[in-house]
Structures are given as C-alpha cells and as structure tokens.
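User
Here is a favour to ask of a fellow structure person. I am asking you to supply a protein in sequence and structure-token form. Please set it down just below, with no commentary around it:

Assistant
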Amino acid sequence: MFSLPFTLSILFLSELASAAETFHIPLQRRAQQTHDLDYYSAAADNLRAKYNIGSAAGASTGRRRAAVENIPVINQGTTIQYGSGAVAGSINRDVVTMSNFTIQNQVFLGVDRLQSGLLDGQTSGILGLAFQTIASTGGVPFWQNLLNDDQLESPEFSFWLARSDSRGDDSAPGGVFTLGGTNSSLYSGEIEFLDMPGSRPSYWLLPLQSVTVQGERVSIATGNSALSAIDTGTTLIGGPSDDVASIWAQVPGATQAANQQGFWTFPCSTEVNVTMSFGGRSWAISSEDMNLGPVTTSGRTCAGAIFDLNMGSNIPAGSGPSWVVGATFLKNVYSVYRANPPSIGFAELSTAAGGTGTAPGSRSTAGAGSILPKAGLASALSFISIWTLL
C-alpha cells in the first residue's frame, strides 16, 4: 500500500528538520539519464492529459475517463492523472507531520494501483502544491491547511531548481524547496511579484506577455490565450501551436521533428537564446536548457525544449492554461508562490545558486537563510516528489 511508506518518509523528514516555521528541504536529483526524443514525446502526451489538452485528454465536460493508462476506475475509487502517469486508490484522512508542522485531519489519496514506472524505489509519494479548487481528492492541500492553521511564518513557498551537472550518480543536489518563506542565500535583489489573474485560484497562473528569440521579439497570442501554468513538476515548456511555430521560425535551421509531432529540431551548433516576460522583467533561458541533446547519431541535430502543447487542436480561450512552463524556464530564476494575495514572484539567482547575482542580507522569512543542499541530507529527503501543480 502507498500510505505506509508515505507516512514513514514524512516522519523521517521531521527528525531532520529544524523547529523554525520556515522549512528548507534540500532536493535530490535522481540519477542522471540520457533521454531520447521518444521519452520527451511521451512526457508531452502525459502533460496534455494532465491539463485536458488536445486528443490525449478526456472529455471536455470534465468527466473522468473510464480508464487511464490501463488503470480502471472502479466504484469508490479515484483515478488521478499526473504529468508522468496515473494512479488510483481510496481517499483517506489521517495525521500528517512534516518537521514541526502537523495537520490532524489531512485528506490524501492512498494509492493501491499505479502506472508502471510512475514511482521508483526512491519515491513513495507526491505532495501537491496547487490550490484546493483543482485537487482531485477535493481536500484542502497540506500547504493550504498549514496556512489556514497559522503554522507558516509567511504565506509563501519557493524553489531553486538546480541545473544538472556532469555527475552520473544520485548524489547530485537538485535545489531547495522552502515552505513558509524564502531562502535569501539563493537569490539576488528584490523578488518581483506578479498578481495572478482571476478571483478563484486554481493552477499557479500568469499571462505570458512577451517572448524574444535570438534577440528579436516574437508575436504571440495575448489575454486568456496566453495564460501560463508555472509548473515545477514539468520538465519542458509547452505552448500553443502558432506561438511555438513562431518561436522556432526565428532559429536558423530549425524544423519540425520528423517522427515526433509537436517537437522541433535545430543544428546542435546553434545557441538558442530565448527570454520570457510575464508582465514585469524579461527572464533569459540558458541556451543549455533550450537544448535537449542530439537526436541523430551524427550529433549534428538537436531537439528543442519548447514544444507544441495543443498539437493544432482548437482549445477554447479560458478553458485552461495555454502554456505550461516547467524547469526549462524555472532553472533560470528563483521562484516564489504567494497565497495571499495570490501571486508569483521571480528573482535573479545568486552566485550560490549558479547565477550571477550576490545574495541579499538575511531575511526573517528565510530562517536559516544560508541553507544549501548537502548530499547526505538530500538522500534522506528523496522519498517525496514535490509537484507544484497537481
């Protein structure tokens, strides 16, 4: 059963954490693997299903599909679709403790069926960090319960997602997740907060305002057609067909991938330079993050990290996010998610986090603001995958 290892991992976390009301969790990167375009294409299909986009999605009425990846829906059962697969089980309530934080009557899904390969020996649970309005269980998410119970020092959580290095083992640090505030050692300057649209938060959303490619501004849709889910649980960046085509049209030699619809390839010798703005500053994406690696044995053609999310389908404006912005972008910024008022903040990475900025002085919301991941601690924290948008 899913619930027992999940409980044990939470208790293990509580032994390692401090008593502060701001909780810093070093993230561990899984062992580095070389992925081909088939892998990313499958991940894109799962992402479309997660956001009910295109042919991979269920009915537009929002009704649950009869089966997801060979996991049948049975009486009194819930099937949940994640970005990398699906699980099913029963809804439970129990005491959940993480560090000094405790919720007495937390709703969660006890999983007894899951898609093969979704969870490995290092992961025994998934902790969602979006709002209750889109919770598949209907329950209040753990972080919102903590906020409602005045257990958090600040109505925020934040992420530094580390870029992978050359190490091939599973000891490489993956970044830091901070619950209840920020970690001031990981960013430079002020955090630029942007208010989320709408009055009823669901996903963490911002409208994409502008994109540049190779220094030139690209024409993209605006308004509801530009709503973007900022998703730490997603690897790449997916967007509307026309906008994605406009982006790759600015890259010399870029063409649609021959065998993987929705993806684009370009000469590996080309540095793809992209910036994105959500209403404030423009944030540059490293050319390293834009390149998924060679797709040919010659090593001359590489795959791009921005793909066609809706595959040309006609998605009504306002029915959901048009963009899903994942780690390809988020590895280049320090991101903060504020519940009240609902907003998302970005800041420049400090040198300690691989950026070029100098970290500001210690902030009260940072607690032990100099906390950085250490391999020994991170290995004990790898039981739980933390996804912002579930």
In short: The helical segments are 3-16, 37-50, 142-148, 241-249, 287-290, 327-330, 375-380. The radius of gyration is 20 Å. The first strand starts at residue 23 and ends at 28. The chain has seven helices and 26 strands.
